[in-house]
Amino acid sequence: MKLDPTVKKETQYISLWVVIFSLITQSVFLIAGIWDYTVLLGNILSGIAAIGNFLLMGITVQKAVLKEEKEAKSLIKASQKLRTLALLVVAVIGLLLPMVFNIWAVLIPLLFPRIAIALRPLFLKEK
């Protein structure tokens, strides 16, 4: 199945904001004097997970619109459970490997897509 242009466009939007917020996060850790490589690695791990989660959600919705309502609901529900589990695994990896990942740098970027979505109306052009 080909990636829908809307899914691609929205994933690019989310990716841009995850990168912007990640740079801000790195800056805050640096200014606070607590930056080290674990902050960078945690941010990268979580940023990739957050973008991947959003992309998979978009692909699932793209597939769901082609199905009957009951089957679509089931697909969306299963996808949400698996994606949530995947994000939980990322958070646990960050927690269990503190010598590799800063836990705060792992957890904070998981919120970036929600923030980007909340900011979206500010950047929509009036029609």
How would you describe this protein?
This protein has 127 residues and is mainly α. It has one domain (5-119). The protein has five helices and no strands. Helix 1 packs across helix 5 and helix 2 (37-64) runs antiparallel to helix 3 (69-96).
Write the layout of secondary structure elements.
Blueprint: H1 5-31, H2 37-64, H3 69-96, H4 103-107, H5 112-123
Helix pairs in contact: 1-2, 1-5, 2-3
Give the oligomer, counting copies of the same chain as homo and different chains as hetero. single chain
Number of domains: 1
Query: What sort of overall outline do the alpha carbons produce when their principal axes are compared?
Result: flat
Poorly predicted sequence stretches spanning 5 or more consecutive residues: none
Report the average pLDDT across residues.
94
Main beta sheet strand tally, sense and closure: none
Provide a short characterization of the protein structure.
The protein is mostly helical. The chain has 5 helices and no strands. α2 packs antiparallel against α3.
Key descriptive features of the protein:
127 residues, mainly alpha, 5 helices
